[in-house]
Structure formats: C-alpha cells, structure tokens
Write a structure and sequence with these properties.
Helix 1 links the parallel strand 1 and strand 2. Helix 1 runs parallel beside helix 7. The protein is built from 7 helices and 7 strands; from the N terminus they run E-H-E-H-H-E-H-E-E-E-H-H-E-H. The chain is α/β, with parallel strands linked by helices. The strands form 2 sheets. Strands 2-1-3-6-7 form a 5-stranded parallel beta sheet, sandwiched between helices. It has a two-stranded antiparallel sheet with strand order 4-5. It is globular.
C-alpha cells in the first residue's frame, strides 16, 4: 500500500504535528504500507487561492501544469491521510483550497447524465485525523455532523472514494483531553491498517 499524508497546520510545535509524527511512526512499522509520501501544505507554500480569468478557466483546472505534481501524488496513493485542525467547524482554508483545486472535474470526477458524476478515484481509501478545541460531541450536537458530511458525502463519495475513516478528537486544549491516549490510538491504527 502506498500512503500519501497531507498535513495542514502552520506550526510544527503543535499537537496536530504530534499526530503527524504518530501516523508516520505507525505507518513505518506496518508491513502493509510499502511507501509513504508527506505533503506539508504550509511548508510546501501551496497556494490555496483559486484564480479564474480569460487565460485560466475552471474547466481546465484538471490540466493546470502548476498542479501536476499534486495530481501525480493523488494518483500514486492507495490511501490518502489528511491531518488537520478543525477551525470554526471545518478544515482550515489552506486544506479547502487544496481540495478545491485538486478534486477537479476530469481528474477526480467526470460529469455524466444523471444526478451524480462518475468518481474517478475509485479504489482509494481516506483517513481524516482532526483535532479541535471544543468538546468531542460539539460537531455532532451543534453542527449536525457538518464536518464529516462535508468530507465524506460532499467530497470523497462524489469522487468515488467509499472507504473513509475519521479520528475526530475534541477537548485538545484541555489538561483532561487525554492527548497521549489519542495519539497512541492513531499510532496503533496505522501500525495495523490494511
């Protein structure tokens, strides 16, 4: 299995970075994971801004030469791991800008007659590891699970990715947040995942 890890947080001294380290550590110990690539969107200087004009049209985004490297990473990967904080009930703008550009028509999906398009990323799986300051049940009780619906239904299912796993950790700024326990949970998962 080839694994692409997409890390989205501006601070390498953060708890989110500790989750990245645990994902890498567990993945390296997993005999099912043969290769790993890591994309740190902030360190990479990824430009999340969409620009459309006479020369750059949305319908041509799937062949933008500036994004070729990132398209190749997605096509290479069997498993894509997203690691990010949840800010204001959703992933950071940097990650959403990456998603807006990478999961483009004629690359991630193809329009066809009918209600839904043809997903072009079938056979891949996704793991989302996210942290938040608020209580663990906040997204479910107050936001009607908007984060998971956004990621699973509106994005991954749309592009053909059916196997999606979430680690959504709340209370991460609390002394009672059980950070070590949650870091170890992610580590153990990546040690054994197939």
């Amino acid at each position: 299995m080839k694994t692409l890890i997409i890390y989205t947080h501006p601070n390498h001294n953060s708890l989110v970075y500790s989750f990245l380290e645990k994902v890498i550590e567990g993945s390296k110990e997993n005999p099912n994971i043969k290769e790993i690539q890591i994309l740190d969107l902030y360190e990479e200087g990824f430009n999340p801004l969409l620009v459309f004009n006479k020369e750059k049209r949305r319908r041509d985004m799937y062949r933008d030469p500036n994004l070729e490297k990132y398209r190749e990473q997605i096509m290479w990967a069997d498993k894509i791991v997203f690691i990010y904080p949840i800010w204001w009930g959703r992933p950071p703008a940097m990650l959403m800008g990456y998603i807006d550009q990478m999961f483009a028509s004629n690359f991630a999906y193809k329009d066809k007659s009918g209600l839904l398009p043809e997903g072009l990323l079938k056979g891949k799986s996704v793991v989302c590891v996210s942290t938040m300051k608020g209580p663990a049940n906040y997204p479910l009780l107050y936001l009607n699970n908007a984060h998971k619906i956004l990621m699973k239904r509106a994005l991954f299912s749309y592009v053909g990715i059916k196997k999606v796993k979430f680690f959504e950790f709340g209370n991460m700024e609390s002394p009672k947040g059980k950070q070590t326990e949650k870091l170890n949970k992610v580590y153990r998962y990546f040690q054994k995942v197939k």
